[in-house]
Backbone:
């Protein structure tokens, strides 16, 4: 073999060997950070941790997500901005922590008759998919979810009528604070992490929160009464979002895995909300507390009292460029979806603590 031919063969073998070696190397691992304010033991945090593991499993280790619970990376009020700016790559929080930042989504926290966590979770995802609120443009939405209807907890005074609410200091946030005020209570913008101490010290008399917090935040240890005006049906809306640049740079097959897992986890989370609200009701009873169910006639009085608040929403959004017809369309769609998913809930035999 001539020297020239030997060099040519050697070069071909080198190039072939180099590219074989490169192709044999595993894909670079994509490392992401997921932030939430929920305590590590809370059911929502446990589900989020499982979400991270499921993504890693289905991507065969190509994606690893470090999970930060309890506000250790970003606190509840900073989670959305933390995702948008890249401090975290994925985040879960509650829109009420940033009043005014989510003007369209805040309609979902109005008293429109939201009946259960499973129903509400489906409604908020349908709403987001149809209307694509521009306040979410800075991030990629993985999925939304929602708790069950807010229940009025009180430590000393039972609330059996609208008149009983007068002057009661109620811990709540966002649009739910507007609801409490309209009903005659005194809203106090206390963080849920401070409710237990606030009630113990008399800073607040109670809170407007879903039933699950009686157990998940141990409020059932001190609350004596829980009034359930579920037909009024206000709630809190939660988001799970991803940094837009990180999402755009993911390979297409990994995006598909995220989409599949997100759809599954929206369903899991909705079912979980129903179960933990049942757990919360049982926890209260075990500690000697009482659940007060309002009559249909009494709930109609609450609904009537809230009509001015619903009417004022159009004016609030008009200043931000939204037409009354837009707001009417939002509310009509929400009510139609509530009826649809409530029928599905009944059809599937999914339990909740309200009806």
Residues:
């Amino acid at each position: 073999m001539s020297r020239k031919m030997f060099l040519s063969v050697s070069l071909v073998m080198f190039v072939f060997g180099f590219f074989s070696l490169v192709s044999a190397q595993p894909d670079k691992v994509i490392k992401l950070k997921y932030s939430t304010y929920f305590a590590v033991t809370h059911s929502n945090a446990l589900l989020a941790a499982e979400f991270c593991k499921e993504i890693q499993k289905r991507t065969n280790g190509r994606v690893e997500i470090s999970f930060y619970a309890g506000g250790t990376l970003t606190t509840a009020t900073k989670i959305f901005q933390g995702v948008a700016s890249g401090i975290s790559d994925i985040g879960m929080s509650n829109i009420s922590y940033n009043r005014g930042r989510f003007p369209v989504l805040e309609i979902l926290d109005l008293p429109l008759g939201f009946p259960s966590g499973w129903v509400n979770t489906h409604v908020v995802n349908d709403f987001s998919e149809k209307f694509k609120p521009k306040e979410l443009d800075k991030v990629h939405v993985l999925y939304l979810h929602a708790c069950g209807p807010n229940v009025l907890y009180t430590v000393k005074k039972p609330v059996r009528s609208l008149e009983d609410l007068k002057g009661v200091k109620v811990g709540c946030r966002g649009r739910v604070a507007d609801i409490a005020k309209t009903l005659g209570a005194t809203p106090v913008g206390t963080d849920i992490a401070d409710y237990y101490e606030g009630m113990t010290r008399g800073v607040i008399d109670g809170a407007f929160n879903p039933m699950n917090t009686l157990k998940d935040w141990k409020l059932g240890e001190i609350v004596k009464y829980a009034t359930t005006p579920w037909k009024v049906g206000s709630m809190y809306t939660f988001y799970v979002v991803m940094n837009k640049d990180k999402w755009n740079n993911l390979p297409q097959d990994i995006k598909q895995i995220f989409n599949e897992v997100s759809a599954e986890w929206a369903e899991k989370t909705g079912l979980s909300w129903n179960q933990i609200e049942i757990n919360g009701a049982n926890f209260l009873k075990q500690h000697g507390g009482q659940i007060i169910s309002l009559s249909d006639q009494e709930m109609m009085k609450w609904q009537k009292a809230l009509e001015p608040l619903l009417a004022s929403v159009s004016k609030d959004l008009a200043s931000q460029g939204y037409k009354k017809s837009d707001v009417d369309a939002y509310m009509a769609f929400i009510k139609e979806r509530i009826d649809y998913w409530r029928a599905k809930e009944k059809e599937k035999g999914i339990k909740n603590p309200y009806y």
